[in-house]
Amino acid sequence: MAFFGWFSEEAFRLPQAVGLIASLGFTALVVHREDRSRRVSNLLALTAAHREIWTQIHQRPELARVLEAKADLARVPVTNAEALFVTFLLLHLSATYRALRLGMFSTRQALDRDIRWFLALPIPRAVWDRSKDLLEPDFGAFVDRCLEPDNQPSTGSGEAGHRDRSARPDGGDM
User: Where are the domains of the chain?
Assistant: First the structure.
């Protein structure tokens, strides 16, 4: 009899608890889906910015020398147009680095490999050397680590001698 008395007094709390738990679960599901959608949107925006920057190489022939591995800077110094293009790309890489650190992409990016390839070219390296102190210090330190001789570009394979591209730029795990 005591059970029925207690149950009749407390029975209304069970539906309240179930409703509260269900609403929390629904909210978590919505937040998760919104986060996933935002990450994909961020990746699409990054791709659009990347395409816009690199399209300049094809639309402006005077920038073609930026990609020449044997550009002779002693004979023909870096032009203003080349320096501006490289600066835009460095700012893009810096923004990508920041976004990676904040976990804003749905996929992993091989930023270290891209930096190593691009700054191996004479013109980008010259512009980097002149402008690295103007960019965020943590990005500069990341780029310096990418350029160290024993730091091979990432392949995502996890093989010895290669950085695992699943690692965050700040050394933590994603």
Answer: 13-147
